[in-house]
Design goal:
The chain is an alpha+beta fold. It has 13 helices and 6 strands.
Length: 284
């Protein structure tokens, strides 16, 4: 596991942005498509030496002014800027914005009603442990046959890393595994004892497949995208997903899956016609 999450996040953002995006010429002999440290330092108004210390973890306490300048230089989104600030606070060790709060499994009545209104669309609720604490019947028809919903409280991360069926269900398993680690690292990660316990379990179950990602994948999963999903009854599906954060008190995220093409839409329609509706919620 990386003990320098702040530096990892800064490096990943620096290498993900192109010179053209910040108004700089690419220039000859550039070895990477991302920005050089000197370029980020110039844009943020800090020294190259200081940025190097931040990325290497030799300085872990940048001021709010420096964080703001880096956010501007790296063209961070609002959610990425919040994450950067949280990482700067967590770098001192022992910090957790969730305190000792148990990961939320209770689902508010209005959120239950929202899930009911989403039928027959596949949708699920995840807490910060990636436990599936609520889902539509549409999601059950999608996920049940591949084993994702096995267990009293199904866990998405545990399924991906510890269940061999996941590699058959997801043709792009590596990408899905990266996203699961990013979701676990979105908060304070090992500063949260509940997340740390799950990380220890996955380390034993998956070994290098999990530990390598904790050291290289920064936090903040993608809030939208397309995932391929192989269903034993209707074949390969291409699903567009949207992930929406609920209120902080809920400690939950809503993930909704929509067909990304006509063939997937037809396949989902066939699944929905075969089984009755019925909302499923895990009670804490």
């Amino acid at each position: 596991m990386s003990d320098n999450e702040l530096g990892l996040f800064l490096r990943s953002r620096r290498t993900a942005i192109t010179p053209a995006e910040v108004g700089l010429p690419a220039g000859p002999r550039r070895r990477t498509s991302g920005l050089r440290r000197a370029e980020v330092a110039m844009l943020a108004g800090v020294s190259v030496e200081y940025l190097t210390r931040l990325e290497q973890g030799r300085d872990r306490h940048p001021s709010p002014q420096v964080l703001s300048a880096l956010g501007e230089a790296l063209r961070l989104t609002p959610s990425e800027r919040v994450h950067l600030f949280r990482l700067s606070k967590a770098s001192g060790g022992g910090f957790s914005c969730m305190g000792d709060a148990v990961p939320g499994r209770d689902v508010r009545p209005t959120v239950r009603a929202l899930l009911e209104r989403l039928e027959p669309t596949p949708a699920m609720l995840l807490n910060r442990l990636n436990e599936i604490v609520g889902r539509t019947a549409g999601f059950e028809r999608l996920a049940g046959p591949v084993g994702l919903l096995d267990g009293a409280v199904p866990n998405f991360a545990r399924y991906v890393f510890a269940d061999e069926r996941a590699r058959a269900a997801y043709p792009d398993w590596d990408h899905v595994a990266d996203e699961q680690v990013a979701m676990l690292k979105q908060g304070p990660f090992r500063a949260d004892p509940h997340v740390a316990g799950l990380a220890d379990e996955l380390t034993l179950a998956a070994g290098e497949a999990f530990t390598r990602r904790t050291g290289t994948v920064p936090g903040l999963p993608r809030s939208s995208g397309i995932v391929r999903w192989v269903h034993p009854e209707v074949g390969e599906l291409r699903l567009a997903y949207e992930m929406l954060d609920l209120a902080a008190e809920d400690d939950q995220r809503l993930v909704v899956y929509l067909p990304a093409d006509a063939a997937t839409g037809g396949a989902l329609d066939r699944l929905h016609r075969r089984r009755p509706h019925g909302l499923r919620v895990v009670s804490g």
